[in-house]
Design goal:
The complex is a heterodimer of chains A (about 90) and B (about 425).
Chain A: E1 3-6, E2 20-23, H1 28-38, H2 42-46, E3 57-61, E4 64-65, E5 81-86
Parallel strand pairs in A: 1-5
Antiparallel strand pairs in A: 1-2, 3-4, 3-5
Chain B: E1 8-13, E2 19-20, E3 35-39, H1 41-47, H2 50-54, E4 84-86, H3 88-94, E5 98-103, H4 114-127, E6 132-136, H5 140-152, E7 155-161, H6 166-173, E8 178-182, H7 186-199, E9 203-204, H8 210-213, H9 218-227, E10 235-239, H10 244-258, E11 268-274, H11 279-285, H12 311-320, E12 325-328, H13 330-344, H14 350-364, E13 373-378, H15 386-389, H16 403-418
Parallel strand pairs in B: 5-13, 6-7, 6-9, 7-8, 10-11, 10-13, 11-12
Antiparallel strand pairs in B: 1-2, 1-3, 4-5
Classes of the chains: A alpha+beta (about 90), B alpha/beta (about 425).
Chain lengths: ~90, ~425
């Protein structure tokens, strides 16, 4: 089994409107590189000039914010679900 | 691209400045920065004078030109214009010259400041043709969406952490809303709602409707300034969950100054959090301009957002206005709820305890000078979070319906007092 990446609405123009994309990457960082190779332009939406995930982007691995894990170095296993989302206001 | 709607000009990314049409969308496609409504202030200035405002009904909609709807609002026409109380007894306790309470515990209809943002979001959702509204909520927003959707005849889905206070759950169910309890923190509820919003064509008030929704909070600032006799507050203490309210109150003051409705004056914005969920106040105290996400653990559940979306902007506003931030423990929150109730007769929810407790600390440390004037934003009603104080406020003393028993009780108490 591969790993699934859930694509948020603002990025779907880049992914031919695909909501979910399977990747083979072994870390979050590699997954972003893999997405970039298949959907050019996606990386600069997610990473700032220094290569870090942008402040208004949050990435979740199986429901856990990767900032509580190892950020881009977080390792992936088969069947993992990665969700990329814009940060959201309160309630 | 540019298509005026009412006094709105466009949506604009706060980060890169790219502009978007006035649709149900909330983030910049390029850098995920939040979108904000851009207004035509020149036109607003011609229409919105003190005289015009004062001639209108006493609700938040008397500042209608500064709220993001194209036509007349259709939801929540009675919301806002809550009392601004001069809190002399609490001022003496906290040791400050002048203190005011902006009392949104009695906001209409659902007893929290959230009715402000929801009446804007639902009015705008109707303009954009939605028939179903939804939200991710720590409780108060769910109550407000449920109530206002019911009165507007809209269908609603509200998503909340399943461990919320009973009062907040019942307060959503009663209106016939679809209440979905999520086994997780608010941040997880939020994530799920972002995923749902991407799949279902609903108006999520704090997701795809967020640029409109968030603007409703500015009305607190307009009202405070008008009720102070057309001046911006010298200090305003604001509870912080996502940090949005603090940034919008600041924006509201700045708009009034820009429009010449109040004189230009210094205004300091101070942020209040619970120690059990204090990513913003911790960063502020450490002098950082970014925060580290946390896992919340506090009785102030309405403020329990560990990944505050507007935290970055809240830190910026606090810094720019020379304000401060503090946080208080659960015990301090309960003590402060009691202090507010015993001095001013206002029963606030836990977030109100946070605000009063933090004001006390900021005054004690001199961040708010004792000779100054401050406004505390009390944003929700204590009847909704009874669980938080139950068992900490004593018990009624029971006697038989007999005068002798009552006199015995009093004399016993007097002995105890004199002993």
């Amino acid at each position: 089994m591969a790993k699934r990446v859930l694509i948020p609405t603002p990025l779907r123009k880049l992914t031919d409107n695909e909501h979910e994309i399977e990747v083979a990457a072994n870390t979050i960082g590699e997954a972003i590189t893999e997405l970039q190779s298949r959907y050019p332009g996606i990386q600069e939406r997610l990473l700032d000039e220094t290569g870090r995930i942008r402040g208004f982007v949050s990435v979740w691995l199986n429901g856990e914010d990767i900032r509580f894990l190892k950020n881009q170095q977080t390792t992936l296993r088969d069947g993992d679900e990665i969700s990329i989302l814009p940060a959201i206001s309160g309630g | 691209m540019e298509k005026h709607e009412g006094f709105m000009r466009a949506l604009k990314c706060r980060e890169c400045g790219r502009e978007y049409p006035l649709a149900a969308t909330h983030v910049c496609e390029f850098d995920f920065g939040p979108l904000e409504v851009v207004y035509d202030y020149d036109r607003i200035k011609k229409s919105l004078t003190r005289e015009a405002i004062q001639s209108r009904p006493k609700s938040m909609w008397r500042y209608r030109e500064l709220l993001p709807v194209a036509n007349d609002p259709t939801v929540g026409l009675q919301v806002g214009f809550t009392p601004l109380i001069k809190a002399d007894r609490l001022a003496r306790e906290l040791g400050i010259r002048e203190l005011w309470i902006k009392n949104d515990t009695v906001n209409y209809p659902s007893l929290s400041f959230k009715d402000r943002v929801v009446s804007v979001a639902l009015s705008r959702a109707r303009e954009l043709g939605f028939d179903t509204v939804a939200c991710a909520s720590t409780g108060n927003l769910a109550n407000s969406v449920a109530a206002n959707a019911a009165s507007a005849g809209l269908k609603s889905y509200v998503f909340i952490p399943s461990d919320l206070e009973q009062g907040k759950i019942v307060n959503s169910l009663i209106y016939g809303a679809n209440v979905i309890g999520i086994k997780g923190h608010y941040d997880e509820v939020n994530r799920l709602c972002a995923e749902i919003a991407g799949k279902f064509g609903w108006a999520f008030v704090n997701v795809n409707m967020r640029p409109y929704y968030a603007e409703g909070s500015k009305s607190l600032a307009y009202e405070i300034a008008e009720q102070l006799g057309w001046r911006v507050a010298q200090h305003t203490v604001v509870p912080m969950a996502s940090g949005s309210l603090l940034t919008k109150i600041h924006k509201g003051y700045q708009e009034l100054i820009k429009l010449g409705l109040t004189p230009d004056a210094e205004t300091h914005l101070h942020g209040a959090q619970a120690t059990g969920c204090s990513p913003i106040s911790t960063a502020q105290k450490a002098g950082l301009d970014f925060f580290k996400p946390v896992k919340p653990n506090t009785i102030a559940k309405s403020l329990a957002i560990g990944t505050p979306a507007d935290g970055f902007y809240a830190l910026k506003v606090i810094k720019e206005t020379g304000g401060g931030a503090e946080d208080v423990t659960d015990d301090e929150i309960r003590d402060s709820i009691r202090l507010l109730a015993e001095t001013e007769g206002i029963f606030a929810e836990t977030a109100g305890g946070v605000t009063v407790g933090v004001a006390k600390k900021l005054i004690a440390s001199g961040k708010i000078p004792r000779g100054d004037s401050a406004v505390l934003c009390i944003t929700g009603n204590g009847l909704k979070t009874l669980d938080a104080v139950n068992g900490h406020v004593g018990q009624p003393r029971e006697i038989k319906p007999s005068l002798r028993e009552f006199e015995a009780l009093l004399s016993q108490e007097n002995r105890t007092v004199n002993a």
